[in-house]
Design a protein that fits this description.
Helix content is 25%, strand content 26%. With 291 residues, it is an alpha/beta fold. It has a single domain (4-287), classed as Spore Coat Polysaccharide Biosynthesis Protein SpsA, Chain A. Strands 1, 2, 3, 4, 6, 7, 8, 9, 10, 11 and 12 form an eleven-stranded mixed beta sheet that branches. Strands 5-13 form a two-stranded antiparallel sheet. Strand 7 and strand 8 form a beta hairpin. The chain is globular and about 50 Å long.
Amino acid sequence: MKPTLLVLAAGMGSRYGGLKQLDRMGPNGETIMDYSVRYALESGFGKVVFVIRKSMEDDFKQYVLPRYQDKIAVEYVFQELDMLPDGFLVDPERKKPYGTAHAILVAKDAVKEPFTVINADDFYGKDAFRVMAEFLTSGETTQPPTYAMVGYRLDKTLSPNGTVSRGVCSTDEHDYLTNIVENRKIGKTENGYENQEEQLHNFFKGDEPVSMNFWGFTPDFFDCLNDLFVDFLKENQGNITAEFPIPNVVSYLMESGKARVKVLHSNAEWFGVTYQEDRPGVVKRLAELDD
């Protein structure tokens, strides 16, 4: 069974100042996610599912879908604030989406195969898709289930134009994930690599593996997500900024013994656009790629 690529493309892009997902930065007018779809197809993926907002649908149909026509099967689903389990209503004061784990959950009816989750606006490199495809098609079944993520070096994922949010990972001697901690304001300072959140100021060497939202799951993950999202909504009634991100779900599953996560190594390099000022550097790197 060929795996599916699930592309999270519904983000606001508030710090960037626009829809990064549709920004044509490649030398031939490619978006960053065009490269991801190409590399996934070359690695043996059989379908792409995009998570978008309803307000993006017209642009998506006009500018995105035609690029993949006759190349790979494509579907899209919507992530909206009111897409909640029965018995829950969205707080009218809430403006931001619930987070990346909710974005996965809305795709449950479109994804029935082992699947990879990525951000639309991150460039992950060709080899990352190769190692993930090998993991998802290995046919190995374990109990509890084994999921995967591609790890990237912290110092290779920073922006020179401001701080970034990164999930810093710890692993055991067999490269299984033991801990993932979200650090929301990491940047390079005169003291090294530092999380500059008030009262925290954690320091890092720079070679720590970080999660860049490149995950591999099996379809049973959706059942876990649904139950945990219900718990999240109950616990956060009245909290209009609470988020339901993938690392929180993965951490819970590991700590409760319900899953384990293999950290995959690759020679691929990540780059992306957190801020508008990052764009020229990304354009330059895409132009330098060897096809």
